[in-house]
Amino acid sequence: MSTRPLVEYESVDKYFGETHVLREVDLAVEEQEVVVVVGPSGSGKSTLLRCANRLEEIQGGEIRIAGDPISGPDASVNRLRQQVGMVFQSFNLFPHMTATENVAVGPRKVKGVPESEATERADDLLDRVGLGDQTESYPAELSGGQQQRVAIARALAMDPHVMLFDEVTSALDPELVGEVLGVMKDLATEGMTMLTVTHEMGFAREVGDRIVLMSDGEVIEQGPPESFFEAPETERGERFLERLL
Length: 245
Prior knowledge:
This protein has helices spanning 45-51, 77-83, 99-111, 115-128, 144-156, 174-189, 201-207, 225-230, 235-244, and strands at residues 7-16, 19-29, 34-38, 60-65, 68-69, 84-87, 162-166, 193-197, 210-215, 218-223. By secondary structure, it is an alpha/beta fold. The chain contains nine helices and ten strands. The radius of gyration is 18 Å and the shape is globular. The strands form two sheets. The protein has a six-stranded mixed β-sheet with strand order 6-7-8-3-9-10, with helices on both faces. A four-stranded antiparallel β-sheet has the order 2-1-4-5, covered by helices on one side.
């Protein structure tokens, strides 16, 4: 473990117009830790993630990656997005590119990796997520679960320090959820630092090192999975679990 967190939110405020979406959020994610964020719809979970790679800009407080503030005049968005990989509900693959080309394009365009090297790395990553036999397939030829695994490989191709997963299984048919969660479990086992928003409570309990409950833009409670699921500390936590379990 590092002496300081890899991801730090300090008194973070975020507004959409008059709506206060994040309210002085404090949260830290240690290196190699898997933090799972849960909570009702509209609680600010996805916004929390999107602020960590500046898809949304904050209005107060500070977010740091590996000790460096990510906002301000000296912060590079391109450098940040090489450090922080993000996978969304929607796959956002390029339809005219094969799986290999989708994964290789980031390192080629952003990092200047030679095409042959980027292609070899892309094929290795596709094999890692169980798609070694689909390298030449186009997105339209792949199932939703396969497309989402390509999206994970694409994010990993940039060699990020931390991976953000924003409800990546919510758009999938139930029978395809397991194959994506399996890849995420493997990443956790390999020591990838992960900040994950999910409704999959089985995954949260099994893989998470810490559960963070959000409601109305605030962190309500956080703790190890066994504590959260067996004996939540807050009434809000109890109500949330009653609706789920």
